[in-house]
Structure formats: C-alpha cells, structure tokens
Hints:
By secondary structure, this protein is an alpha/beta fold. Helix content is 31%, strand content 26%. The strands form two sheets. Strands 5-6-7-3-8-9 form a six-stranded mixed β-sheet, sandwiched between helices. Strands 2-1-4 form a three-stranded antiparallel β-sheet, covered by helices on one side. Helix 5 links the parallel strand 6 (141-145) and strand 7. The radius of gyration is 18 Å and the shape is globular. The mean pLDDT is 88.
Amino acid sequence: MKILEIKNLNVRLGGTKVLEDINFEVEKGEVLAIIGPNGAGKTVLLKTLLGILPYKGEIKWQPNIKIGYVPQRMDIETDIPLTVAEFLKLRGKIVSDENIKEKLKNVGLNENILKSGLGKISIGQRQRILVAFSTLNDPDVLLFDEPTADIDIAGQESIYKMLHQLQKSFDFTVILVSHDLNVVYRYADKVLCLNKKNICLGTPKEIFNTEQLLNLYGGEKGFYAHKHQ
C-alpha cells in the first residue's frame, strides 16, 4: 500500500532552485533512506514533505496520515528552566503520564529522567527524548533528519539500533536522512540518492556500487558492506 507519492516536486528558496523534478514513492512499513552530499536538499525535502516550505508539483500522503518528525538536533541552553516532563507535555492533550512512560521505555530511557532539566541531559539522551516526543501521537510515519549528527560513534550505533527496533515493533514507515552509508545499507529497504535532483533510486544493493556513489558524491565515499549473522 502506497503511503506517499511524490511527482515532479520542485522547490525554490530565495529564487534559487533547491529541488528539481523529484519523483519517488514510499510503501507502508518501508524504510526509505535519503542520501547525498552536503547542500543536496535532503533537509529541504523533509521540510517540504511536512508542509513547512512552498513547492510546485504533487505530494500525496495517504488520507488521515499521522506524521512524526525528529530534527538533526535540539540546541538547548544548559540553564533553560524546562524539565524533560514539561517538554514532553508541550504536545498537549494527547499526552498522559502513562503515554509518556510508555514512550520513554520504547526509546530506552528510565522515567527518572523526567525530573531532569532538558539542558542538563546528554546529547544522546536528548535525541531519544526527541524520538519519544515525535511518537506521542502514535504516528504512521516517522521522518528522521540525521538523528545522530552530533553523537559519537558508539552513541550513533545505539540510536540506530533503537530506531530499527521501534520500526520493527510498531511497523512505522520511516523516511531517514543519513550520512552513514553502512547504517543505510543495513537498515533501509530503499535508497533515494539526492543532489538537488533524483540521481538514483533502488535497494541498497542496487545503489551501493562505486559508479553510483561517484556519480552522487563526485568523489570517494567510504562504504563497506559488512556481513551480519
């Protein structure tokens, strides 16, 4: 079942064409990874899908779709007077104490963190809180914009395993922007190569060959296909 269909999507910002003639589809329960060099328009694409940016073309979501969004980062001052519990309750009427505790458990956090100041917890914990925040309305599809951009390698692996487990457990459809090609290879069902235009679209095995990556990045890009039992 198609959950999203994009046809001839074009986006201009400040008179500059950022995305040109983008076309792709996403099936229910699928993990679509979006890859490309810096400035390729990946974040712009996600924001356009969310209805934040103006566009020409067609964005057709499944009717009554519920969407969750996790940005690259949440820049918080360490002295901000807001606890984790207060932040999560900003979602409004959909939030209950039981709902919050359930979502914290799903992202691997203890409910004791609710009393902590939002600016006092680690970056990795903050990203998990953002994931919990985005799932409070039990969305059908989750959009992730490089969710481990500021986290160390060990923390990145932990976050991606958590996201993968969430997707398996709740059958979310996932649209993920990532710079880590090894993670994309392991977890994505389909890969969209983006550099202002559609460069390639297919399964990780189809996409991750030297010619395709050179065409996308215009130079060397490290990728190693690890075998997993």
